[in-house]
Amino acid sequence: MPQITVIEHLLYHQKESPMATGRFTRLLSEMILSGKIINQEVNKAGLVEILGLTGETNIQGEKVRKLDEFANQVLVHRLQQAGVLCALASEENADLILVPEDCPRGDYIIIFDPLDGSSNIDANVSIGTIFSIFRRISTGEEPVTLNDVLQKGARQVAAGYIIYGSSTMLVYTTGNGVHGFTLDPSVGEFLLSHPDIKIPERGKIYSVNEGYWHYWDQATRNAVDYFKNPDNDSKRVYRSRYIGSLVADFHRNLLYGGIFLYPADTKDPACSHGKLRLMCEANPLAMIVEQAGGMATDGINRILDLQPKELHERVPLVIGSKLDVLQVEKFMRAGA
Ligand code: AHG
Ligand code: MN
Ligand code: MN
Ligand code: MN
């Protein structure tokens, strides 16, 4: 009988991790429960009145979808119940979400993208939840401020994502490797299915929205061109794969090897750094990919070293197999 490890068991016995305190386990347990609740709705999205748009526009200037809002409400409510947070931040909320007075609190801060890949919901394409966990900087007596939240990604104490795909998986790290758990719907438990994930040093897949070619600078075009026609003498061929859900593109590249790029572009003057958010998308995935032996940059600089200035700031993202990310860095440093 194969060894079956339920996630709570691993969390409880993760002695080597400084995060194995009961308080952290409590927080991750609420994230797990939230993932199960969201997964239920995602799985029957076509049957209940939960597809389509709410008619609202979020702080990102994006049309909010009903499942975005549902996932956000589930996460805010459940995570506040964990009793170990002093603040939350969501892609869907303009400002910090403080823990209500009547909820017990603690020193952790969680930042999340409640539903990544929203544009794909109605087409039944994989989507996900991404989360990033910090400890507050100020001491317990002072009120929590944005300064507690705007920390470099290197200070994350944990990061992870849940992908609602052909199966539902939770992938997370507390700085001791990356572990993947698959939801067994028959028992309603996340079971360890991918212990200690490592990303191949070089991949055979590149993921980028080539529809924006005319909005990229020359260095970016040179970098993307490389993956169409790598070192001429080698017989290496890269495949282009782009789902349009960051969490799904990232997860495939993490397991198979490959590189994902969302470069800076001039398509929207309001965000010349591309579309992806540093705090709730780039930072958590950068922690995961580094723990799996990969790399994550903004084209040149390590994502985890970037000092955030705003909660929803955007950042160009180049993430995946180390040698592929270094290849892009060469082109970005060389310029046009
Ligand atoms: P979200 O649904 O959380 O707003 O994120 C969508 C992001 C990301 O999932 C994906 O990689 C990217 O949008 C796709 O953007 P384009 O359609 O511009 O390629
Ligand atoms: Mn969005
Ligand atoms: Mn997203
Ligand atoms: Mn989102």
Structure commentary:
It is a single chain. Helix content is 29%, strand content 23%. By secondary structure, it is α+β, with helices and mostly antiparallel strands. It has an eight-stranded mixed sheet, with helices on both faces. A five-stranded mixed sheet has the order 12-11-13-15-14, with helices on both faces. Strand 1 and strand 2 form a beta hairpin. Helix 2 (22-43) packs antiparallel against helix 3 (66-81) and helix 5 runs antiparallel to helix 8. It is globular, with a radius of gyration of 19 Å. 2,5-anhydro-1,6-di-O-phosphono-D-glucitol binds at residues 62, 91, 113, 116-118, 209, 244-246, 275. Keywords: Carbohydrate metabolism, Cytoplasm, Hydrolase, Magnesium, Metal-binding. Pathway: Carbohydrate biosynthesis. Its EC number is 3.1.3.11. Residues 5-195 form the Fructose-1-6-bisphosphatase class I N-terminal domain.
